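Re: weekly structure request thread

Next one in the queue (330 aa):
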Amino acid sequence: MGTNIELEEGWVIIQKQITKLINIIEGVPESSMDASIHATVYSMCTQRDPRDYSAEVYHRYKGVYDDYLSSKVLPAIQEKNDDVSMLQELVKRWANHKVMVSKLCRFFNYLDRFYIPRRKLPSLKDIGFGCFHEIVHEDMKVKVRDAVIVLINEERQGKEIDRALVKDVLEIFVEIGNVNDKENLDYYVNDFETAFLTDMVDYYTRNGSSAITAVECFRREKDTISHYLHTSTEEKLLKQAQDQVLAESSQQAESSQGQGLAESSQKVLEKEEVGNSLPPFIYEQGEPLRPYHIGVPEDNIGVVKGAGCGGLDITLYYLAEVFAAFALLE
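Done, posted below.
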């Protein structure tokens, strides 16, 4: 090797070390990497024109991800025969990809320090994660989203699921969009949260609810948030749950006898053991929501207030008041 390193000559050295890294990530027996890749990148990017190969190295850096993700990662995820295995493979591949990006960013560091800032190009990290988004996430996001929603619905039905797996998958939706901006949740919101909230309403519509199942709905959805959803979903989810229960309460009021609804509200009030575990989501702009009494005398509403709800969460009291108000309208 002479003083100057030609493009193809240097890339052979770089590619050899990249292949070692990929083998290590893939679990293939491989010897340790050496420092030749870092030294070669530096030499190729600091030579005088026309042998300054910074642009070519930068372009081929992206090609490393394109080739690996297309030939290894995406097929490995797609070939899984069931949703859980597919999600597990996705989580593993995302973790491996983060390692790969971290390693390659260090090896190609000269580009990040000099070439990229001068030309205002995407950083090495942006390229690495951007490739995963373009090749893997865009291809799999609908199938992954639907698989996660199926698991959440199975848990709603009482089936035990791998909550850690669901959480890890949803972390990918968060992390892939906020590499440079931790407040950016666009991918999480657009690719998962919106469909999840819609499905939640559909789920409770399909399965119906009563005064008791409404309480269970609230408690279950808060439990869902605490275990695997991003915290930003909480306000939206609980507002959806509230709207759904009130809508179903209205439908029941139109189709049921008043006495039946009154009995339902009494059952809610008597189920005190769930009271304090319920989420305080019945507030709008800092003020508690109140039912429309529509002419119901305050002394009648007072009967509901005093019907054993002392230790209950205000949410439960609110539901009871709604049911009683509808009952008294009959």
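Strands lie at 283-284, 287-288. The first strand starts at residue 283 and ends at 284.
Next request, please.
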